[in-house]
Write a structure and sequence with these properties.
globular; 14 strands; single chain; 9-stranded mixed beta sheet; 8 helices; alpha+beta; 325 residues; 3-stranded mixed beta sheet
């Protein structure tokens, strides 16, 4: 599909954290971490565990990096809202008890050949150079596996300081688990709060994804639209006369598919022409900078959503949600 768019504990591996100025962390530390009074500064096993638990609960925190930053605060707030709690974005013992699980949040994983296939040497930033390629794939096994497990690549490599990230190798990863399928009744793109809310049976909010939605110069649409179709690994049709201006490119270009392409791994087409919901080659930037009018999610959130959403599902664009109910 071509798109036309305005937007664009078997192992206990030591966490080599000298660059963060802290003592080493092991996978056992992550699985055994328990909240007491506050989230630590910097990378911590507790925050890694919390991010995994929030992801499992549908309050997706974006990239799991072990740092208690803005995305963690937003994810806590989203979890509180979905559970009908007073949303203040602050972790406390009562909230931890609702989230905590006996299921390990970190595990050993043996890399399969398909995990590291179709890698490419590098991805150019210029669209004209991208157009010369056949596939905009991951540039390393570490990048591919980090996205598979919703992780920041630095966290993955620090958990596995000696790994080559090749097929057959056993590494340590976090375990966000697989989202159980839900019948989506509607979606709300909440621009001010930088999130997409997914409602299921009974019009109940079940998942909230961090998102980048539009910008002042290229705003997202308003009102209610619908999902038109879904495409995995679409090609991207760049047309500077209707798209944004990219570098010095003044001619139409067909950008090949791949997770590192302009729209990432998935394109969810909307009935509003040229607009859609899609992935991104830069997951760490989700909800931190503006898009070109569309709705950007991490590749893993976009892929998860694409497996559940059906044509005809309403997508409601709002400036800010006073309440998710």
């Amino acid at each position: 599909m071509k798109i036309f768019t305005l937007c664009f504990s078997a192992l206990s591996i030591v966490f080599a954290t000298a660059s963060f100025g802290q003592t080493p962390i092991t996978t056992d530390d992550i699985n055994a971490a328990e909240f007491s009074s506050a989230l630590p500064e910097g990378v911590s096993p507790l925050t890694v565990k919390l991010q995994v638990l929030l992801d499992r609960a549908g309050a997706n925190p974006g990239v799991i990096d072990g740092i208690a930053g803005e995305n963690v605060t937003r994810a806590i707030t989203n979890y509180e809202e979905m559970r009908g709690l007073v949303p203040d974005g602050t972790m406390n013992p009562a909230l931890w008890e609702k989230l905590r699980s006996e299921s390990p949040t970190s595990k050993a994983y043996t890399i399969a050949p398909k995990d590291v296939e179709k890698l490419v040497g590098s991805i150019p930033s210029d669209y004209a150079e991208m157009a010369k390629m056949e596939w905009l794939g991951y540039t390393s096994g570490a990048e591919a596996l980090a996205e598979k497990f919703h992780m920041d690549q630095k966290l993955l490599t620090l958990l596995n300081p000696s790994a080559q990230f090749v097929a057959g190798e056993t590494i340590i990863v976090v375990d966000p688990e697989t989202q159980a399928p839900i019948a989506i009744s509607r979606m709300v793109a909440d621009k001010a709060n930088e999130r997409v809310l997914i409602f299921g049976p009974g019009d109940t909010p079940l998942i909230i994804y961090p998102a980048t939605i539009g910008s002042d110069s290229t705003p997202s649409p308003h009102g209610t639209h619908e999902v038109k179709s879904v495409a995995e690994f679409p090609t991207y049709a760049y047309n500077p006369s209707i798209n944004f201006q990219q570098a010095a490119n003044t001619e139409k270009l067909t950008i090949p598919p791949g997770p590192n392409g302009p729209v990432g791994a998935v394109w969810i087409d909307l009935t509003e022409p040229t607009y859609g919901i899609h992935g991104t080659p830069e997951p760490s930037k989700i909800s931190k900078n503006s898009s070109h009018g569309c709705v950007r999610l991490t590749n893993w959130d976009a892929t998860e959503l694409a497996k559940m959403v059906k044509p005809g599902v309403p997508v409601i664009f709002i400036e800010a949600a006073k309440s998710i109910y």
